[in-house]
């Protein structure tokens, strides 16, 4: 390699050194500098987007909280009695015909079901807890001779 370099004319050496320096600068520019600049521009854009989203969230936070309170109040039956919630939701779940007795007890209601599907009853009870904000304080089940059917006595109340 030294003999090859020594065999070059001084003009050729300058051209090769200049070309090598140019290629080195170009490689650094394309391989390091350009990706850094592009990444920085992307990060700046992301910061602008996130700042705009934060500003929007600050503007709507009070409205969202107010809606959540209203929705929570309506889902837990604020303004409606436990008896009304139980009867309306049992009717919506198709359990009204099996509901044989509903009587008030304290802050809740004592219910009796005759020959109700166990699966339907469990789905309805989960709905009472999740959507209506009620909880089952007591539950007694009697297995029926018909597969999947039970008789149930339960106490439902506000937490």
Q: What share of residues is helical?
A: 55-70%
Q: How many H/I helices?
A: 4
Amino-to-carboxy terminus distance: 88 Å
Strand content: 15-25%
Strands of the widest sheet, in order across it, are: 1-2-4-3
How would you portray this structure in words?
This protein starts with a helix and ends with a strand. Helices cover 60% and strands 22% of the residues. With 159 residues, it is an alpha+beta fold. The protein is elongated and about 110 Å long. It has helices at residues 2-6, 10-75, 82-93, 118-130; strands at residues 99-105, 108-117, 135-143, 149-157.
Features:
single chain; 159 residues; alpha+beta; 4-stranded antiparallel sheet; 4 helices; 4 strands; elongated
Concise summary:
The protein has 159 residues and is of the alpha+beta class.
How do the helices and strands line up, and which of them pair or pack?
Blueprint: H1 2-6, H2 10-75, H3 82-93, E1 99-105, E2 108-117, H4 118-130, E3 135-143, E4 149-157
Helix pairs in contact: 3-4
């Amino acid at each position: 390699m030294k003999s090859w370099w020594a065999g070059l004319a001084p003009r050729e050496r300058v051209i090769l050194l200049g070309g090598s320096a140019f290629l080195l600068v170009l490689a650094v520019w394309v391989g390091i500098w350009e990706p850094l600049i592009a990444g920085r521009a992307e990060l700046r854009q992301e910061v602008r987007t996130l700042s705009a989203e934060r500003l929007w969230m600050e503007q709507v936070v009070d409205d969202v909280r107010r809606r959540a309170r209203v929705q929570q109040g309506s889902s837990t039956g604020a303004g409606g009695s436990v008896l009304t919630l139980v009867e309306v939701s049992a009717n919506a779940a198709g359990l009204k015909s099996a509901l044989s007795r509903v009587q008030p007890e304290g802050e809740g209601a004592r219910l009796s079901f005759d020959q109700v599907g166990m699966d339907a009853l469990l789905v309805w009870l989960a709905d009472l807890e999740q959507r209506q904000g009620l909880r089952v304080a007591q539950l007694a089940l009697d297995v029926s001779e018909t597969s999947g059917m039970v008789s149930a006595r339960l106490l439902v109340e506000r937490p």
